[in-house]
Amino acid sequence: MKDIKLAFFILLTLSLTCCSSVKVLNSWKAADVEDFRDNTILVIARTANEEARIAFENEITREIIAKGMKATPSYTKFPKLRPNDKLTDERKEEIKNLLKKEGFNGVVLSVVKDYQERTRVIGEGGYEASVNYGYTDFPTYVGGGFYVYYYSPLSYSTEDIYVPESEDTITSKLYVLETVAYDLEQQEDKQLVAWVTSEIENPSGATTTANSYAKAIAKRFKK
C-alpha cells in the first residue's frame, strides 16, 4: 500500500530522470470569474509536507500576481495553518475567523487527489493515452462553498493506494491534482468561481513541477 502523502513528497522534492508534463483533464469557470480579480486571495496547498506546501503556494501565487491580482501564500501568513490536519469544530471556526480578520475574501486551494503508476512491459509498445481516474467529471461537492469543501473528507489527499509491482517494465508516475477557487464574498452556493483537475506525469523536481502546474491552471482561470 502506498501513502499518497509520501507520493506528494516525492512529487515535489525528488529530482527524477524523466521529464515532467502537465495535462489538464477538465476545468470549469463561472461566467463572472473576472469579478474574482478584485479579491484578496489566500493560496493554500493541502499537504502535511512543508516543502511541498511552500513550492506550490509560491508558484501559484506568482502566477496570480502576474495577472494583476492580489494573492498571498498561506505559509507566510499562517505558518501553523496545517491545512492537511483533520478539523475539529473549534478549528473550523478558528479558520473562518482568521480569514475574516486578515481580510481574505478569496481562496485558491490545491490538493493531490490520486496517484498511480502506469507501466508497460518492455517490447509491448507505448503507454495508454491516459488513465481514467474518475476526476474528469465536475464533482458536486465543490459547489457548496469554500468552507463546505475545506471541511469535507473528499477534499483531502487520498491515502492507501495499492500499486502492484511488475518486473521488466517501464514505469510512468502519474498524479492527479485538483485546484478550486472560491469568492468568499458570495453566498455559499455561488462561491465557486473555478475548478481544474490536472494530471502530472513523471515530475522533474519541486520548483519546476510547481511552476509548470501553476502556469497550466492559470490559463484555465482566465475569462
Search tags:
single chain; 223 residues; 6-stranded mixed beta sheet; 6 helices; 6 strands; disordered N terminus
Structural notes for this entry:
This protein is of the alpha/beta class and about 220 residues long. The protein has one domain. Helices cover about 30% and strands about 25% of the residues. It contains 6 helices and 6 strands. The chain has a 6-stranded mixed β-sheet. A hairpin with an 8-residue loop joins β5 and β6. It is globular. The N terminus is likely disordered.
Domain unit count: 1
Radius of gyration from the CA trace? 17 Å
Query: Roughly how much helix do the residues carry, as a percent range?
Result: 25-40%
H and E string:
HEEHEHHEHEEH
Q: Within the largest sheet, what's the order of strands?
A: 1-6-5-4-2-3
Question: End-to-end span in angstroms?
Answer: 41 Å
Q: Helix count?
A: 6
Main sheet summary? 6 strands, mixed
Q: Uncertain runs with pLDDT below 50, 5 residues or more?
A: 1-19, 123-133, 159-166
Global outline: globular
Based on secondary structure, the structural category is: alpha/beta
Strand content: 25-35%
Number of strands: 6
Mean of all residue-level pLDDT scores: 75
Could you write a compact summary of the structure shown?
The protein is of the alpha/beta class and 223 residues long. The protein is built from six helices and six strands, in the order αββαβααβαββα.
Strand-helix topology:
Layout: H1 4-13, E1 21-29, E2 40-45, H2 50-66, E3 70-73, H3 74-77, H4 89-101, E4 106-121, H5 146-151, E5 169-183, E6 192-201, H6 206-221
Parallel strand pairs: 2-3, 2-4
Antiparallel strand pairs: 1-6, 4-5, 5-6
Helix pairs in contact: 1-2, 2-6
